Amino acid sequence: MKKILHAGNNLKGKQANPTYISFLGPKLEAVGFTLYYTSQKQNKVLRLIDMLLSVYKYRAKVDLVLIDTYSTSNFYYAFLVAELCNLLKTPYITILHGGNLPKRLDKSTWKSKRLFKHSKLNIAPSKYIMHEFKKRAYSNIKFIPNALNIEKYEVTERGCERLKLLWVRSLTPIYNPDMALEVVRLLQNEGLDVSLTMVGPDPHNKFEELKETINNKKLRIEYKGKLKQEEWYKLSENHNIFINTSNFDNMPITLIEAMALGLPLVSTNVGGIPYLIEDGKEGLLCNKDDALTMVNCIKKIHKNPDLRQSLIVNARSKAESFSWQNVKALWISALA
Predict the structure, then answer these.
(1) Average of pLDDT values for 274-282?
(2) Could you give the count of Cα atoms lying within 13 Å of 48 in the half-sphere of its Cβ?
(3) What's this model's pTM, rounded to 2 decimal places?
(4) I need a labelling partner for 171 at 20 to 30 A (CA). Which of 91, 183, 193, 204 fits?
(5) Which CATH number does the domain 3-145+323-335 belong to among 3.30.720.120, 3.90.180.10, 3.40.50.2000, 2.60.40.10?
(6) What is the pLDDT of residues 193-238, one digit of tens each?
(7) Using only C-alpha atoms, what is the Rg of the chain?
(8) Full DSSP string of 100-131
(9) Helix (H, G, I), strand (E, B) or coil at 179
(10) First CA to last CA across the chain, in angstroms?
(11) Please, what is the Cα angle at 162 between 193 and 316, to 5 degrees?
C-alpha cells in the first residue's frame, strides 16, 4: 500500500474545529495505507511553513500528497504546497472542501489552473462541486462523498410538543449565526414555545455580540461552546429540529450526522446543500438569510407529524448511503 502525506488543518485544542483529516486518515491507515500528517500549528504562518517543510522532508518517503483545499485563505496553503510538489515532482491529489470554491476558481483563475490541472486527481465530496468544476473545463475530478461511521448514530424518538432547535457550526459569518437568532425571535413573536441550543467553536468571540440581542429580545438561546462529537450527539436527544443557516456550504458532515441521528432538517439551500437534501424529501430548504421562510418550514414540521416522520426516514436512508463501508472502495481506487 502507498505512503501518503496528508496536508491540511489538523488542529487540536478547545477552539479548533475538527476537520475531515481526523476521520479519513485513520480509515485509510486501517486498510493498509501509511499516513503522515501536517499541520497542527495554530499560527497560520507557522502552519504554512510546517506544511512546506513536511512536503520537503517526506519527498522521498511518500508516494503522493493529499491536500485539503478550501476557498478562503487556506486556498493559498493548498496552492503553495502544490507548487512545491510540482517542483519536487511529487504527485498530489486535492480534496475540495470549500463550498465557495466556484467563486475562487473565477477570482483566482491562474492559481486555480496551476493547482487543479496539475493534480493527479481532484476529489469532490459533493456533486455540486463536481458540477461546478466540470462546468469550468476541469476533467480530472472524481466524486467521493464525505463518509461517516453510521453504526455510531442511533435514531432517538423525540416528541415535538415544544420546539427545541439545535444549531451546530462554527460561530463565523459564513455560517450566519445571526439568522438563527432571528428565527427564534420570529417564532417567539408568534407565541410558540421555542428554544435554541447553539454548539460550535467561537474563534472571534461572536457570542459576546450575540448575547446583547439574546438579552434584549429575551430569546431562549443557550450556547454550549465547542463539544466533542459524542457530546453533541447526546445533546441532540433533547432536541427535535436541526437548523442550518449557512451562507455558503459544500457537503457539510454536520448535516449528514444530523440526518443519521433522526433530526428533521431545515436548511438554507446554498452551495451543495440541494445536492444533499431534496426539498420536501430529506429536509426543508429556504433561501439564504430568509429567516421568515425558515420559520414557516419549522412550523410545517411542527404541525405535520406525517411530514416529520417522512423526513426522518428519508434522511436516515440518505445518511446510510454515506457509510464508510460504501465509500471505502472509492478511496482505494482513487489512491491506487
Answers:
(1) 97
(2) 13
(3) 0.88
(4) 193
(5) 3.40.50.2000
(6) 999 999 999 999 999 999 999 999 999 999 999 999 899 999 999 9
(7) 20
(8) THHHHHHHSHHHHHHHHHSSSEEEESSHHHHH
(9) helix
(10) 8
(11) 135
